[in-house]
Structure formats: C-alpha cells, structure tokens
Amino acid sequence: MQIEKEQTGSIISLPPDLTIPTYVINLPERTERLSHIIDQFKERNEFDVTIVPAVKHSIGAYGLWLSMRKVIALAIENDDDVIVMCEDDHQFTKDYRREHFLKQVLEAHDQNVYYLSGGTGKFDHVVPITENRFWVNHCLSCQFLVLYRPFFKHILSKSFDEKIVADLAFPLMTSNKMILYPFISTQRDFGYSDVTELHNIEKGIVDNLFTESDRRLAKIQQAYLRYHNFSAQLIPAGKS
Fold it and tell me: What domain of life (predicted)?
C-alpha cells in the first residue's frame, strides 16, 4: 500500500482507491447468511471481497478451522500483505468509518501486530496502546480479523486435530495482537450456530457477551483518556 506521509511518518492522507483483500467464509447452503454478509460490504469499496466456500465437516469448529487455513493459503497465493478474514455473521457497528479503520490497520502494522480484532465477545487482560487500539492477552470471536503477512505461516504451521477451536487457537499463537475499540464489528445472532453449540443452547448469549465486553472496554478507555488529558495539562505547566 502506498500512503502519503509527513516527515514524521504520520499518515496525512489515504488514497481513495486503497483496498484490503477480504475473504468471507460461508457455507453455500446458508444463503441467508450470504445475503446478510453481501449487504454488509455493499458500497464499502475499501474491501475487495471474495466469498470462500466453507469446508463442511461433521464437527463445525473443525470445518471452520480448515476453512480459515484455506483462506490463508489463498492469501499467500495472492501475495497479500494484509487481509481481512470474516465469518458470515459479521456485522458492522455504527462506529465503523473507512478512514479511521484504514488508519488503524496501517498503524497496527507499523507496530508489528500479527492480527487486529474488529470486536470481541470476551477478553482477559488489556493494555491501552492508543485511544482506539488495545493490546490483549486473550480474546474470543473471529467474525472480523485483520491478519498480517508475518502471521500467515504461523497459522499454517500450527499443529491441530479435530478438537481445535479457532477462537481459542488464534490468541495462543502470538502475543502480537490487538483489538479495536469502539468495536467496528459484532456478530449477528441468526438463532443458530454451525460452530458453537453453546450458542444454540443459550439464546441471546452472543449479544450479551459483546455488550459486556463493550462495557468493560469503555471504562478502560475512559481511564486512559483521563490520564492522558491530565498529563497533557501538566507538561506545559512543567516547562514554564
């Protein structure tokens, strides 16, 4: 990607034709999900979308992992530097904005991040890196992930069996990961899941998980902003 920068290296403009290869995993028979995800990316030309037929398996989570490996193989074949990998239940939040998103993707790349989550239903410990990017030791949800080239071969070299769960596997593969906040992505609840049986048992669990994660991160972001605003007030006073 070619971007215009000041001498300091900060981004001052983004080319209007800048796009990110975006691979969406979808079981062909789930036509309602296909219609949904196509609508999500409608008129968002910053995403160069490819629908990837999911690998079908009696164990849904295993089929999803095989599908993700399929996406990574395609990214390597296409010589992609960065991709978005989506599940077909991804939906954009009201906080998604093109310029903001692309800026976060590029700045995370400069910080050698391996992957950037657009939104998570559960996380453990976080550390604010900027107002909108948080380092995290563990986070669930793979509905919208920005993956960078250095991570591709790590994924393909991961040993696995039919017990693998992508939500658990990805965070364990690298410490170089961040989440965006406010979330730009959540999961639409279709009332069923081909991957996670718990979602079929506990109705509304997806929305509840994302709501709780949002509540926690909002408090952490507020504390971060208060500290930085206070520091900004002190620095000029100390110099005078």
Answer: Bacteria
**Residue 225 corresponds to which tokens in the numbers above?**
């902003």
pLDDT (tens digit per residue) in 76-97? 999 999 999 999 999 999 999 9
CATH number at residue 190: 3.90.550.40
- Burial, 238: exposed, middle or buried (Cβ in 10 Å; 0-12, 13-18, 19+)? exposed
Residue 174, SS3 per DSSP:
coil
Range of the domain at 81: 18-239
**pTM: predicted TM-score of the whole model, two decimal places:** 0.88
How many folded domains does the chain comprise?
1
| Calpha distance 195→142 (Å, rounded) | 12
Among 212, 48, 100, which Cα is nearest to 116's? 100
The three-class DSSP label of residue 189 is coil
| C-alpha distances out from residue 164 to 74, 88, 167, 192, Å | 21, 20, 9, 20
- Per-residue pLDDT, averaged over 140-157, amounts to 96
Q: Closest by alpha carbon to 139, among 155, 120, 126? A: 120
- If you search the block for the tokens 């910080």, which residue do you land on? 111
Q: How far does CA 227 lie from the centroid of its chain?
A: 27
* Residue 130 placed within a domain: yes
